[in-house]
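FORM 7B: Structural annotation worksheet

SECTION A. Query
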Amino acid sequence: MLKFIVDRIVRLVFVLLAITITSFLFMHAIPGDPVQLRLGEHATPQEIARLTLRLGLDRPWYVQLGAYLTSVAHGDLGVSIADTQPVAEKLAQYFPATLELTLGAMLVAIVVGIPAGIFAAVGHRSTLDVVTMSAVLLGVSIPVFWLGWMLVYVLAVLPSHFGLDVFPISGRISLNYYVPPRTHLVVIDALLAGNGRAAADAVWHLILPALTLGTIPLAIVAKITRSGMLDVLRSDYIRTARAKGLGQSAVIFKHALRNALIPIITVLGLQTGLLLGGAVLTESIFAWPGVGRLAFDAISNRDMPLINGCMLLFAAVFVVVNTVVDLLYAVANPRIRYGS
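SECTION B. Predicted structure
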């Protein structure tokens, strides 16, 4: 296990180094001047020259890259060109919102997707199976931005015309609630503060974004669960379990599902990593203050330190999530062991 963890840490360092260099070179190749974008079109040449010199953008790109890598090695991600706020502080400010949204979306995918896949596999070629797989195909095919706007219109805007406040359309919690930040996850912070009303309000704000973001993972999880369960249910040991007189629920949940967990865990890990990388469309539709919107704004402003910070965060999230997935393999299948 120790060897496995050390290997993942070394891999993380190399991944972060490669991502940093690649994104740095890519952003330098894109036309546009970040100083001009920050100061505006009416800035004087003297103002542009002063800010360029202060930010070190007058030096060759390889000197800038070396200086940036040295700063990152010392734990300094630099400051944002747009507002001079430290990049690490901005990431710490925006990432909890993305984490909360991702957890909500994956909860939807797990709670709905896995049972749907199980029932579809058990009732193979039945009406339930056909309906479930049709819904899966629809869920994968619907664009996220269209689904988000439809949910906002049907469940929030349209009811408001009749005086009904069904769902909020933006934000993480209503302005009339104050929750002391501890974990920076609003739902959990509200529960820790003992404010049940604030927690319920935060969950109410989370429902529509989580449904929007969780639709595609839900469909994928349902399809993978059905496929894995069908393979396992045709196995000899399942027929043996049934021949020994085990009940249907014991066969499905104790034997079949556990042996079908490996591909399910894999797809859950991949989808979690993708969502933690920032769901730009969903966060934009619901005015959700996450790293997806932060990265989009940084790219629009050619804010190089902030872009690199976001890329480092995304890469680190992927490696950590994949490591957790590998560890969960051993939990799901005791035959999998990692060397010490």
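SECTION C. Observations
The chain is about 75% helix and 0% strand. The mean pLDDT is 84.

SECTION D. Sign-off
Analyst initials: ____
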